[in-house]
Specification:
The complex is a heterodimer of chains A (310) and B (365).
Chain A lengths: L1 H31 L6 H22 L5 H28 L8 H22 L4 E2 L9 E4 L2 E3 L1 H23 L1 H11 L1 H6 L4 H27 L1 E2 L5 H14 L4 H25 L11 H13 L14
Antiparallel strand pairs in A: 1-4, 2-3
Chain B lengths: L1 H6 L3 H4 L1 H20 L3 H26 L8 H14 E2 L4 E2 L2 H23 L4 H21 L20 E2 L2 E2 L4 E2 L5 E2 L1 H25 L1 H11 L1 H6 L4 H27 L9 H14 L4 H30 L6 H19 L14 H9 L1
Antiparallel strand pairs in B: 1-2, 3-4, 5-6
Helix pairs in contact in B: 3-4, 3-8, 4-8, 4-11, 4-12, 4-13, 5-6, 5-7, 5-11, 6-11, 9-11, 12-13, 12-14, 13-14
Classes of the chains: A mainly alpha (310), B mainly alpha (365).
Chain lengths: 310, 365
């Protein structure tokens, strides 16, 4: 029983990080129909930038309170990622908007590896320890179940961000422009929406979410390195597809569900396969789910779009 | 061959016959020239030929049938591991090369069909991600199937794989022609691989102009229209996956035997992407493109390694960009810039199949 509750807690934590990343995928896909393969690597840049800022602050002002330090690190990481998102869109994806469908995808893969390589040049190949600014001393709300303050912080912060984003999309002028552009570019631009600005804005918001998610992800696992963005990126994509790509509520739901499945799966796979497979197979759950969803319900749980839109 | 001939700068258009002979001479003389720069360069050429086979196979899937496969290296892995299982001390089985090669190809083809079935209905970008996931699953299994039963020997990989033996003639030993003239083993492998590549090219060329090849082109350009004129797209997709996989499997067998050692490290996503970049760089849907792309992108990083590292040493006093970083930088930039500046690749596919992208655009509007 304790294992079950513990795995559900872990699943919720990692699931809310996935949900944040998945939102970035789904917003860009909803508007452009493009899988921004490099999204996971924006996350990595966010985490490493935050790490660098923290190390700098620790050197300059060792007595600074951890919360302030974390806030400053985020305030640096978010604009850096926003810049990257904006630059990618402006320099590469915008020119390929009318190109055959494989071209933007291949470019996005190239972008992903380019970002990884640049990070490798700047930060090296080593794994860096990510400073644990929020306490990681576990608490035991229930006997045998451990929850750390970092985990609580992650869940609360992502819930707040998701609420904020929902408000942004549904209540503001920009949000309305985004929905209109997603519906139909040309008609939206005929109605006076500056679609280029809207698309750039979407990329920038997605990148900001990725920066926050990156800091969370790195804080949760306590490490950061140049290749860290790949797996969460793929999993978040799976989450977005599971929830119905292009649908924001779906991305949130899909992220949480995927987190739960993965962590429960990793907890129980050894029993289920009689010890043949163990928790090192954790990563295959996301791919299996992705395959199953695309075969049996390609629209996802909440989505309406069909998968073979060419 | 004709495409390759006309791609030779200057000479190709003026004197195709001379260009043809030039290519043949270069192909034959390449290892001898490379030997002047050191034995490792012949080895690099051998690997370039393996990459050519991979690029040819992937080009079949991506270029001809229009299915973007990001997990292609998995079939290479299946081939290599099949060879490692059946011809090494790991299980104590030592089957002859001629028996293992078809088995490796068959297993890879089977893996191709296994991948093909679930993704039949997917198109474009979804297909890419699912195939990527497939490649990762294969890699995760290779890494972890050493417990509780040791099948793949985990991250350490499998050692001491048997070399290629053709009719009792061991390619890993230098061939003794006379008392003091011997042909180095690396040459033997080179010419054997060259023969394999030439065979593949002939096969694929015939395939491209066959009924199947034309049906693939139709499917790639407009799946709906292809279905409407009676093309069985399901079987054609499965055929593309399994045939492409077969090439990967054969190349994998050759790789395992040549290197004598396989480990999951050689089959990372980066390798899939590298092969894809070769196809994209050379020109999708074009045999000459696959060959030139593979040749250029297999050699360029090695040349950079030889040039850039000493250059950095003299300029900055230390190595800032190590060769592996340079290779990744080169591949990712090649991919992005190619798509932005010359989407049809270095050697665009012939007019007969040209500009499916424009066709697509007209149909969509």
């Amino acid at each position: 029983m304790e294992t079950l509750i513990q795995q559900v807690v872990n699943g919720l934590v990692i699931g809310s990080v996935y949900a944040l990343i998945a939102l970035g995928y789904t917003m860009v896909y909803g508007i452009l129909g493009l899988i921004n393969f490099a999204h996971g690597d924006v996350l990595m840049v966010g985490a490493l930038t935050a790490l660098q800022t923290m190390l700098f602050l620790m050197g300059v002002a060792p007595g600074m309170s951890p919360v302030v330090m974390l806030t400053i690190a985020l305030m640096v990481a978010i604009p850096v990622c926003m810049m990257i998102g904006f630059t990618m869109e402006r320099l590469a994806y915008r020119r390929l908007r009318n190109a055959p469908r494989l071209a933007p995808l291949i470019t996005a893969i190239g972008m992903s590896f380019l970002l990884q390589t640049l990070a490798m040049i700047l930060w090296g190949r080593n794994y860096h320890t990510f400073p644990q600014l929020i306490s990681t001393t576990p608490m035991q709300p229930i006997e045998g179940v451990f929850v750390t303050p970092v985990q609580i912080f992650i869940v609360v912060a992502s819930a707040l961000i998701m609420i904020g984003l929902t408000l942004l999309v549904n209540k503001t002028r920009m949000g309305r422009a985004m929905r209109a552009t997603a519906e139909n570019h040309r008609v939206a631009s005929l109605m006076g929406v500056d679609t280029n600005a809207v698309i750039a804005f979407t990329f920038v918001i997605g990148a900001a979410l990725a920066a926050v998610a990156g800091v969370m992800y790195a804080s949760n696992y306590g490490i950061a390195h140049y290749g860290m963005g790949f797996m969460p990126g793929l999993k978040a994509f799976t989450a977005a597809v599971l929830g119905g790509i292009g649908n924001m509520g779906g991305a949130m739901l899909g992220g949480i569900l995927l987190g739960l499945v993965e962590s429960l799966g990793a907890g129980y796979i050894e029993h289920l396969t009689f010890g043949f497979l163990n928790s090192s197979y954790q990563d295959i759950f996301a791919f299996i789910i992705l395959g199953l969803v695309l075969i049996f319900k390609p629209t996802g749980l909440l989505g309406e779009r069909v998968s073979d839109r060419a | 061959m004709n495409e390759l001939v006309s791609a030779v700068p200057w000479l190709g258009k003026r004197n195709p016959m001379a260009a043809r002979w030039l290519i043949i001479i270069i192909a034959i003389a390449a290892p001898i020239i490379a030997m002047q720069f050191g034995r490792s360069w012949v080895r690099i050429l051998d690997f370039a030929l393996l990459y050519m086979m991979l690029a040819l196979g992937l080009n079949l899937v991506v270029g001809f049938a229009g299915l973007l496969d990001l997990g292609y290296i998995a079939f290479y892995a299946v081939g290599a591991y099949t060879f490692a299982f059946l011809a090494s001390p790991h299980f104590g089985i030592h089957l002859p090369f001629w028996m293992v090669l078809p088995l490796g190809a068959a297993f890879a083809a089977l893996a191709g069909i296994m991948l093909g079935f679930p993704v039949l209905r997917l198109r474009g970008d979804y297909l890419a991600i699912v195939t990527l996931g497939f490649g990762e699953i294969i890699r995760i299994f290779m890494l972890n199937l050493n417990y509780p039963i040791n099948i793949t020997n985990g991250p350490q990989g499998i050692n001491a794989i048997d070399p290629i033996v053709l009719f009792g003639w061991d390619l890993s030993r230098n061939l003794q022609v006379t008392e003091d003239i011997s042909i180095h083993s690396l040459y033997l492998y080179y010419y054997f691989f060259l023969a394999c590549v030439v065979g593949s090219v002939i096969f694929i060329q015939r395939l491209q102009i066959s009924r199947v090849g034309r049906a693939w082109a139709a499917m790639r350009d407009d799946e709906l229209a292809a279905k409407a004129i009676g093309i069985n797209t399901r079987n054609l997709k499965l055929l593309a996956f399994s045939l492409g996989a077969t090439f990967g499997g054969v190349a994998g067998c050759l790789f395992g035997a040549f290197q004598g050692f396989v480990s999951p490290e050689s089959f990372s996503l980066m390798e899939s992407i590298a092969v894809l970049t070769m196809v994209v760089f050379g020109g999708m849907g074009n045999i000459a493109g696959a060959i030139v792309g593979a040749f250029a992108l297999a050699l360029l990083p090695e040349i950079l390694r030889d040039v850039a590292v000493p250059m950095q040493q003299t300029l900055f006093g230390k190595v800032i960009l190590d060769p592996e970083v340079l290779r990744m930088l080169l591949l990712s930039l090649a991919m992005i810039l190619m798509m932005l500046l010359r989407p049809a690749g270095l050697i665009p596919a012939r007019a007969r199949y040209a500009h499916p992208e424009n066709l697509h655009r007209i149909v969509n509007k």
